[in-house]
Every structure is written in structure tokens, then in C-alpha cells.
Amino acid sequence: MNIGFDMMGGDFAPLEAVKGLQLYLSDNTRTASIYCIGDETLVKPLLEEYQVTSPNLHLIHAPEVIGYHEHPTKALKEKQRSSIAIGFHLLATGKIDAFISAGNTGAMLVGAMFSIKTIPGVLRPTISTVVPKINGGTGIIMDAGLNSDCKPEQLDQFAILGSLYAGNIFNIENPKVGLMNVGEEEGKGNILAQATYPLLKANTKINFIGNIEGRDLFNDKADVIVCDGFTGNIILKMAESVYDLAQQRGFANDEYFARFHYENYGGTPVLGVAKPVIIGHGISNAKAFKNMIAVAEKMIESDICGKMTELFKS
Amino acid sequence: MNIGFDMMGGDFAPLEAVKGLQLYLSDNTRTASIYCIGDETLVKPLLEEYQVTSPNLHLIHAPEVIGYHEHPTKALKEKQRSSIAIGFHLLATGKIDAFISAGNTGAMLVGAMFSIKTIPGVLRPTISTVVPKINGGTGIIMDAGLNSDCKPEQLDQFAILGSLYAGNIFNIENPKVGLMNVGEEEGKGNILAQATYPLLKANTKINFIGNIEGRDLFNDKADVIVCDGFTGNIILKMAESVYDLAQQRGFANDEYFARFHYENYGGTPVLGVAKPVIIGHGISNAKAFKNMIAVAEKMIESDICGKMTELFKS
Q1: Is A245 within 8 Å of B218 when comparing Cβ atoms?
Q2: Model-level pTM?
Q3: Which CATH number fits domain B124-261: 2.40.50.140, 3.30.70.20, 3.40.718.10, 3.30.1360.120?
Q4: What are the chain B neighbours of A69 within 8 Å (beta carbons)?
């Protein structure tokens, strides 16, 4: 398997990307070929300095970088030699099987939707975020901010995409799907939640367990939590702030609160597009990069995008 | 000043209500007259047992109780001798200046809106929840669940009501109002947030500081956070669960995380109605009841409802 890795994305690139690669390769069981895409005048000396060598490593020169504040569509068009544009080109042509970047999020989304394309039948791709459960398990919540306003049909699709992700990446059997809401009973909620409930209830491709509430985010009620991207983004950032609060109060080393740190999850996959695309946090560090590569590996191995395509055919 | 206090509301009533009263009266500076509304065959022996006596205490017999699962409108109509119905009757006729109950939330809301009435000009009353800030301060977020779907004009009014509350009850001068959103820049967000931003920006009755994000809930960016009740309710319950997580991880005694416990805030006032009405948590304990009485006292003292009425005239 071939994984494309943008060495230039993130506030601490390419140094942290190189260190992430080092971490990843230090595990000898890894067999994926990594295509490191970036400015070789910057990346090569760092790979040498950190002695990151492997027959599975391939450096692809990308002299341009898309900055954080550039307009996604415009930048992707004009900077054809940027690491993100090259990454999507390689992914679209099948040279790589997954693409990872912690660079300009908008450019990554535009690239995912326009060079890789949405899976036929999927209304809109979605991004998710990982939720650390108090019992040690892992949940995901989606949409995490890509689609601020959603239709019930979209939430219904998120449930399918999320279930496949939880099943294939977290190895959760028959993942429980919950609808984020303000009460447990059917009929509760805003117009969107009220209209979504019957769709989820009738959806035979998922294991719908009903409504869940804000207090259920960290317990074991649901493995996959669906909501619109406005709600999901607020939840995501609020959960991230729980880590900051724990840190400020001196509990950062607590085993549970430590799991709130973004680096443990690496990045967020764009679900609903035909190939694995993973977007990293702007502040990604070595551990985050390593975990992103590991998620890409799992996504390729499980052929999750192929499974999604199959499921949306029927 | 006269405060009506439902002795029968809450899972642990009337015992915890009696103990809350005891706590409140143990502070000798308290001068409010408390009208204890409840079944005297249950309340009187408890008041005697706990030696809760004061010339400021008046027991009003209410032989009926509205249960948690009763239909609010129906129960209020049929159980005229219930503590909630009597409370609102006393409030409407001016015998008491505020009414507190941890009973059936729906009945409390129906009572507030129909026997006390909404302040002229207010589209819909709102309920808020308190947010403990990491710097020691206190913020409020509203709507906390009364209005799942909102119009921009409602959020604009919540900002005014919340600013008055933060100013008069928390003594925050010129409280900063933030719009809960998914990004800082104007133009971000779902349709509701996008349409609300310009209204808040143009509102001369508030100190609007712009959008805030989920991560800003516990920092000092905003004192008053406005959002629809769907979003607010999820945030409220998620914040409550942070207390549970801290407790489960053994940090319940941490000074900051302890502030997440609902008992510190007592209850949520119904804002936008003509007189102070406070709804308590179903699991209210003595400390929560004491704090509810203290909030009622502050609301009467500051004439917050009068100020709201004035502000909505102009």
C-alpha cells in the first residue's frame, strides 16, 4: 500500500512531519510505502539529520506550499506544484492509496471533493471527531463542522458512514448509533432532529439506539453520534477545551483526560469520498502525524471506501 | 420581600427543601419572608424536626402535588390546590414577589408564561444555565433548552435579557455578549448564526464582542453566550457531564471542577416573564434550594424584571 504524506502541512512542518515519520517507522511491523511530498531542499536535510531512512520512503518534490489563509479553490488551481495539489493528483491517478495533510483544511476538502469525488449516492461528505469514553472505549461524532446546516437525509447518511468507520477502524461490532438531541423520547428536539429520528429508525443499515443527550457523549450509550456540523463543531471544540481545563487544573496526566488530546487521534478522515483522505490539526505534532499514518493504513487495509461505495449502491 | 417556595418539588422533597430553608435561614442577614407552599401534614413535622423556625416563615397548605410525568397544562388546570398552581396564584396576585420550584418543569414554564405573562415585546421567554469560568468568573448561556428552534430576533432578545441578568445578578459591568458559533469571523456559521450576527452587532443595548467557539465556553471571552435552545441544552448537559467525569476520575474536590456541580447555581430563572420564577433541578439538594432562594432574593432586590420591562419598551 502507498500512502501520500504532505510534509509541509501544519504549524510545525516539516520538522514534526519528519519526526512523526520517524515514530511511525520505528515500529518494524509497518510495511506501507510512504510518499513524502514536500520541498526537498527542506525535507531532505531533516530526514538525514533525524536518520529517517527506509526502502519504503519516497521523496516527491513539491516546491510550492498552500498557506493557511489562502483561498482553497484558487490556491489549488494556481499552485499545481504545491504539496496538496500534488498529493491529490497522485491519489486521483492511483499512485497513492491515501493522502494525509495537516495543511490548509479548505484546500484539503476542495481537493477531496473535486479531485477524488464523492461516493455515488452520498449527498455530502462529512468529517468526524473522536470521543474518548470514560469506559476506555472510543466513539465518533459527525458531522464535526463541514456541514453547518444539514437535512435529515444527510444525518441519515452520516449514520451509515460513521457505522462503517467505527466498525472498520475501531473494530466495534454492530456500532450503536445515537442521534444527538435534547431528550430521550422520540419526538423531542428541534425540527431537524424530529425529522431525522424516523429516518434513522427505519434505516436497516445501522443499529439505531435512539436519542442521546449532551451528558451521554462520554458514556457507552452510543458509538456513533450524529448531528449537524454546527452542533458537532461546538461539541468538538468544547471537548478539546476539557483537555485544556484538565491541564490547567493539573490533571493533564490523568489517563482519561489525556485521551482528550487531539494528538491521540491524529486527524479527521473525510468520509463519503471515494478514497481515504485525512486532514490533520494545524498544530499537529510528531505523535499526531504518526497516528494519521496509522489511520490511513487502517482505512486502506479495511477497504473502507470500497465498502462505503458498495453500501450506497443498494 | 416575599418569596414563594414550593416544598414539594424535586426528587428529595420535602426533606431537602426543609434542609435548604434551614441553610438559608442560618445566615442571619436574610430578611425575606418565605412562603412555604406544600402539604402541611408532611412539611410541618419536618420543619419542627429540623427546628426551622423564623418569624419570616409562613406555611401555606397545598394538599396536591403535580407529578413529574403529568401533562403540564392539564395538571395545572386540574390540580388547583397543588403547590405549583398555588405558587403561581400567589405570584400573579402579588402576595409573593418570586416563585421557586424544583417540580414539574413543564408546569413551571406553562405557569410562568400563562399566569405571569411574557414581558411586552419579548417574543419568547428563555431559560439559561450558568458556566463556571476557569478564571473564577461566571458566565451564562441561553437558551438552555426552552426554545429548540429559534429565530435570529429571539437570539437578539436573549442577549438583552442575559446582559441584564449578568449585570444585576452576577454584578458584571457591561457584560460581554458572544454568539456561539463555529468560527470567529463574521459570516461563519449556520443560517441562524449568520442571520443573528448583524442583529447583535447593531444592538445598542448590549456589548457584543462577536462570535465565540465551543472552546471559549470556560474562558473569559464572553459573559453572556447566546444560541438556540437545542445547542444550549447539549452544551448544558455536556458541561454537567464534565463534573461527572471529574468525579469519576477522583477530581471532584478540585476547586474548579466542583463549580460544575448544579447545586452551586440552584436553578434556572425563566427570563422574559414579568416576575421572577426559578426552576430547580429535579435532583435538587439542600444547597441547591438555598441558592435558589438567594437568587430569587437578588432578582427581587435588583428589580430585574422591572428593568427588563423598561428596556423592551424602548
Answers
A1: yes
A2: 0.93
A3: 3.40.718.10
A4: none
